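tool_call: predict_structure(chain=1)
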Amino acid sequence: MRLLITGATGKVGRNFLDRVLSDETFAGWSLRVICHNRSIEPSDRIEIVQGSFADPDTVRRSMQGVTHVLHMAAVKESPDLAIDVAIKGMFLLLEGARASSTLEQFILISGDCAVGHIFHEYDAPITETSPRRAYEGCYALTKVLEEVMVEQYQVQYDLNGCVLRAPWIMEKDDFRFALSLGDDQFGGPPWADLIGETRAADGFRKGAVPLMLSASGAPLKRNFVHVDDLVSAITAAIGNPSARQSLFNIAMNEPVDYGAVAAYLAKTRNMEALSVPTPFHSNWLDNSKARHLLGWRPKVDFEDLIERAWAYQRAPDEPRKIWYPG
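tool_result:
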């Protein structure tokens, strides 16, 4: 078996490579990785193809003899790259898959931005049959289009596709710094934009934890997944007949309740809660289909997410990435 991977240098890609290379189930598999701006070390099992998957020749060379594709590469809010990377690159990969005589499965890693995560309100848990509703910006739009492209290749050409739709992916100390009221905040929305710089700075000095409130005034419920659980979902889907032409929500069994987070941190670390009113909506990404058909179970709940994040000690040569999603 030969697996082609895009986005291998990212958070999910690095963890996936570690898992596959140490898993006896994949002992006979070889891996081919498309690298563009960043790269990884080749090995006896990892072959590197240098280039952009928006380049037809790169995709042609990459697809030769491939049995499985795992497409994880993405651009964030980069309008200049959105069409070339997310749309053209996706089209070229799907065309290569359609024309391949060896391909057995095409897996896309998507995101809950395709259903608008906290930007749009749903009156029921979000399932795989819920409508796609992108929020403002090009990133969410590209995820909607990518999902639809896989879906239509399944209709048009009977492609054995599989889409794994994940919410915000956590690892290491991500969740701890997602709750930081200082300049070291990871992800968004920036707290100062919601409560003002003075109030955010005061909360940071006190070591407070932000308690996000939804548009209704209740504590916000937001979907997360730990990278270990997403990687286990990917390995569960690879070669699984139950994954054929299916879309799966891959998330924690319950969304993270910011009220429960604040209560847990007050109990375990004596942290004060700082209420943060927002225009956002609580949503529940239902993972029942993945649990039923793939036999997959997430292991990390919100308490474990907190404990892992607070226990992680970042090395001096491992700088924290400050990332604000659109």
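agent: The longest strand covers residues 105-111. Proceeding to next step.
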